[in-house]
Amino acid sequence: MYNNITFVNEDGIGILTINRPKVLNALNQATMLEIEQVLTDIKADDTLKALIITGAGEKSFVAGADIAEMSSLSAIEGRAWAQLSQAVFAKIENLPLPVIGAINGFALGGGCELAMACDIRIAAVNAKFAQPEVSLGITAGFGGTQRLPRLVGKGRAKEMLFTGAMIDAAEAYRIGLVNEVVEAEQLMEAAHKMVAKITKNAPLAVRLTKDAVNTGIELDLTSAIAYEAEVFGLCFATEDQKEGMAAFLGKRNAEFKAK
């Protein structure tokens, strides 16, 4: 069905793999359009509880955008390419499901930007991160100038964006770019463990929490906590809230139904 990606549903856990290992999983327009299509399918699939995004092979998560394809773009075409990629990454960020980035090897340019669109990032020890666009005469265009400061702070983000310097997984963890670093052979296991920690909780509460965080971070604090109160109130209209609290009071494990 797809030429540049693979997708499988493993008992309610989606695994999306960027599958161009010969070019270190570089993102061209065809790949981006396939990601966009699979995200539409994922959003419509009620059986999915979470999504893991990774790259094929051991060398690279995504080594950036496809420079060979990008090198001849006009200004108008460059803007359209950025807008398409931004829209696709926004779909990842706004999926109602929790999204885990399992980052193996290089996450450069668009690869780092793809990772940042995920909710939680787990890196293999061999992972490398950079926003090297300035060395090519361009800026980061897939959300990097905006998501990176929000994750690691303006000063560190500007350092990465201005210098294009590559950092290793340990440094990415230290500055808050990734949540966890594991041995390469344990990467997918660690991603599944994170998913298990999340999916044992009430699915609707997790989705509403994601919405509250994503929406509130763009608002002033007064508006954001007002939005939080609305989301909090919505929880009390769910069966999961009644089950969760009854289970707590009854000293038993909750059986959530996402209702």
TrEMBL record:
Official protein name in the record: Enoyl-CoA hydratase/isomerase family protein
Organism: Candidatus Avacidaminococcus intestinavium
Membrane spanning stretches: none
Pfam short name (any one): ECH_1
Keywords: Lyase
Domain of life: Bacteria
Keyword Isomerase attached: no
Keyword Lyase: yes
InterPro entries: ClpP/crotonase-like_dom_sf, Enoyl-CoA_hyd/isom_CS, Enoyl-CoA_hydra/iso, Enoyl-CoA_hydra_C
Swiss-Prot/TrEMBL GO biological process terms: fatty acid beta-oxidation
Family according to the record: Belongs to the enoyl-CoA hydratase/isomerase family.
Gene Ontology terms for molecular function: hydro-lyase activity
